[in-house]
UniProtKB/TrEMBL annotation:
Pfam family, one: Arginase
Details of cofactor binding: Binds 2 manganese ions per subunit.
Organism: Methanobacterium subterraneum
Gene3D superfamilies reported in the protein's UniProt record: Ureohydrolase domain
Keywords in alphabetical order: Hydrolase, Manganese, Metal-binding
Cofactor requirement: Mn(2+)
Lineage: Archaea, Methanobacteriati, Methanobacteriota, Methanomada group, Methanobacteria
Protein name according to UniProt: Agmatinase
Keyword Hydrolase (UniProt): yes
Annotated Mn(2+) binding sites: 116, 143, 145, 147, 223, 225
Family membership noted in the UniProt record: Belongs to the arginase family. Agmatinase subfamily.
Keyword Ubl conjugation tagged: no
GO molecular function, one term: metal ion binding
Length: 292
């Protein structure tokens, strides 16, 4: 039982809480929806992402044909965070409370956004609990945008500043992939602060190799606009020239054997059943779970 949550439609293959026990020897994952999009500056609707990603998850099988593997993890859908519309600080406080409780229960959180600013709240929980040390964590960031502005439209906490605020938490490293949009300030900040970024035009096999070389715990944040708008049209800030779903699948599969301590998929602004964006987002989460 977690405070500041409510229980909507469950993600596919998730189990009821009575069946979800620390005594289970399978990897344990907790799915949390965060329906918040109050700093969105172009296309709103990410608050509906958790609902439509969950709905889309029922289109997939428990068996992965390409991996020849059946899903073998225990997943509990914890529900949605009680977000406070228009108030990032209060929403973030609720989010920190819930994620901290998840971590203390030795559960790996999988967060469905919501806009990208929520990732800061998730990682702030890691920074304030004794379960992980931020200085040991590599942030793997898949996105069309660097999100490294120090402020955006006068706001320090925004979907456009989230990676700058995460950098303030002093993680071991930040690696960005799929990038194709940034201000000069962001590019210079990445260069001057040792942030490793790969553009969408870079070779996918090179990105896979980079992931393979990561040592220690990894937190993965996927802004679904890393995909080209042909595959993910309903996002907060669509940007042409992105990855295709097969590229994204390869990057997720490259995480096999890695110590992933958290995973999120954000910026899904779907508003209808069967939307391509939510289908690709749900598949990304399932691809990750198949690798565990």
């Amino acid at each position: 039982m977690y405070l500041h949550t409510e229980n909507p439609l469950k993600f596919a293959f998730s189990q009821a809480e009575p069946d979800y026990s620390p005594l289970n020897d399978k990897p344990l994952f907790g799915i949390l929806g965060v329906p918040f999009d109050s700093t969105t500056t172009y296309q709103p609707g990410a608050r509906y992402g958790p609902l439509f990603v969950r709905e889309a998850s029922y289109n997939f099988e428990r068996h992965n044909l390409f991996l020849d593997k059946t899903l073998n993890v225990t997943v509990q859908d914890i529900g949605n965070l009680e977000s406070v519309p228009g108030n990032f600080q209060k929403t973030c406080t609720n989010l920190e409370s819930v994620v901290s409780s998840i971590l203390e229960d030795n559960i790996t959180p999988i967060t469905i956004g919501g806009e990208h600013s929520i990732t800061y709240g998730v990682l702030k929980s890691y920074d304030t609990t004794v379960t992980h040390n931020m200085q040991d964590i590599t942030i793997l960031h898949l996105d069309a945008h660097m999100d490294l502005r120090d402020d955006y439209m006068g706001e320090k906490y925004s979907h456009a500043t989230v990676m700058r605020r995460i950098h303030d938490l002093e993680p071991r490293n930040i690696i960005q992939m799929g990038i194709r949009s940034a201000s000069q300030e962001e590019r210079d900040f990445a260069r001057d602060n040792g942030i490793d970024y790969h553009t969408a035009q870079d070779n996918i096999s090179g990105m896979e190799k980079t992931i393979n070389q990561i040592k220690g715990p990894i937190y993965v944040t996927v802004d679904i606009d890393v995909l080209d708008p042909a595959y993910a049209p309903t996002v907060g800030t669509p940007t042409p020239g992105g990855l295709n779903p097969r590229d994204l699948e390869k990057l997720i599969f490259a995480l096999e054997g890695k110590k992933v301590i958290g995973f999120d998929v954000v910026e899904v602004s779907s508003n209808s059943i069967g939307d391509t964006t939510s289908i690709n987002a749900a598949k990304t989460i399932l691809d990750f779970l198949f690798m565990q």
